[in-house]
Amino acid sequence: MDETLLVGGTTVLLRSTEAGLQTLLIRRPERGSFAGAWVFPGGVTEEADAAGAATEVQTAERAAARECEEEVGVRPERLTALSCWVPPVEAPKRVRTWFFLAQAPDTAVHAAPDEVVDVQWIAPADALRRHADGDMVLYPPTWITLRWLAARSSVDEAVAAASAPERYTTVLLGGGVFVWEGDAEHPAGGTGRHRLDTSSLPWIHTRD
To answer: Does pTM surpass 0.85?
Structure first.
């Protein structure tokens, strides 16, 4: 594990509705990291997050909860690690980011004006459709997570399915193709395909 990378935590807030599972997405301002994109609340760890933490995951979990409260006014009480994302070497700012699932408390969300342009509860499949139509800007970690969520019908089902965090060490091939562990063209080795083709809409995820 590269100890030189910054570490971050992201909260994937979930709620079960009569229509199915929904998640909270926020839209970033047209500046800085993820400019104009829809993402989950999150950010880089701070010194206070690491105080007394035994592992990187615990530090990231504290950061995820803190950032969620700062950005949308909601602090989740119980988080479940879903995945760990390592950005490609080409990324302008490299942060190893842990994604955590959390059931949303029964409180209203309030967007932080300096960090969040818009907030929306949305079904994962609807977000993916809007992205395919060019109506919503997403980045690969968000897209992959939404695709995973789209196969779940409730918060309980999603949390139960997150039995072990999956690692995504991202390698960018030419033509906008991202590959992860298990893909034959990933440096870690593999015999199959585990990749996302972002060269055109809709994006195509292949895994075998």
So the answer is: yes
- State how far Cα 84 lies from the chain centre: 9
d(CA 162, CA 14): 13
pLDDT above 70 for 1: no
What is the spatial distance between Cα 107 and Cα 26, in angstroms, rounded to a whole number? 16
With cut-offs at 50, 70 and 90, classify the pLDDT of residue 105: very high
Asked if residues 145 and 168 have their Cβ atoms less than 8 Å apart, the reply is no
How far is residue 41's CA from residue 44's CA, in Å, rounded to a whole number? 11
Q: Give the list of residues 6+ apart from residue 52 with CB closer than 8 angstroms, or none.
A: none
Domain ranges of the chain: 6-169, 171-208
d(C-alpha 70, C-alpha 73), whole Å: 6
CA distances from 140 to 39, 102, 145, 176 (A): 10, 20, 8, 11
Write out the CATH class of domain 6-169: alpha beta
CB 109 within 8 A of CB 14: no
Q: Is the pLDDT of residue 205 over 80?
A: yes
CA distance 63 to 66: 5
Integer-rounded Cα Rg, in Å, for the chain is 16
Query: Per-residue confidence at 37, pLDDT binned at 50, 70, 90?
Result: very high
